[in-house]
Design brief:
Strand content: under 5%
Helix content: over 70%
Order of helices and strands: HHHHHHHHH
Largest sheet: none
Length: 169
């Protein structure tokens, strides 16, 4: 909302013209973001999301900290292919169901979703700004993997350690 309001004020105050604003829109970025929300909805409707939840529970073996780690990994992987917003929207109901079934506090798991969805560095698809610099910066997919994967691992480890310490999981 703030960005839209700011863009409108720039046009009204004549900081930029309507034609300049139209030229600055990147249709590829907009279409990719829209498609990611559709992909998130498709994953939920086809049952893939439920299958993922069951898999996470089975892999955790009843250990809350392992369930937390697997949740983080699942969101982190999803956010690299369907954008951070779609990954968070898809995983939140799954995680709420997981924590309810396991009798666990949902708050640390929601925090893990928030952090994993925001730590999207390994692909250009995961976050809008990654996509915005991908073409103009003449980056390759491999460039994102080389720089982003270590960053994802560092943020993931710091997040999991912080959550485990703060919430006594």
């Amino acid at each position: 909302n703030a960005a839209l309001l700011g863009a409108g004020l720039m046009i009204i105050s004549r900081c930029c013209s309507i034609s300049q604003a139209e030229r600055s829109l990147d249709l590829e970025v907009i279409l990719t973001i829209a498609a990611s929300f559709a992909l998130g909805a498709a994953l939920e409707k086809t049952g893939v999301a439920g299958y993922l939840a069951t898999g996470i529970i089975d892999l955790s073996g009843g250990h809350p900290w392992l369930l937390l780690v697997l949740t983080y990994i699942a969101v982190s992987l999803l956010t690299e292919v369907i954008t951070n917003n779609a990954a968070a929207i898809l995983m939140l109901p799954i995680v709420l169901q997981l924590t309810e079934q396991s009798g666990l506090n949902a708050e640390p798991f929601v925090f893990a979703i928030m952090m994993a969805a925001s730590a999207s560095f390994a692909t250009p698809l995961g976050y809008q700004t990654n996509l915005m610099v991908y073409g103009p910066g003449n980056y390759s997919f491999r460039d994102f993997l080389k720089a982003g994967l270590p960053m994802n691992l560092l943020i993931g480890a710091a997040t999991i350690i912080s959550i485990v310490c703060l919430f006594d999981i």
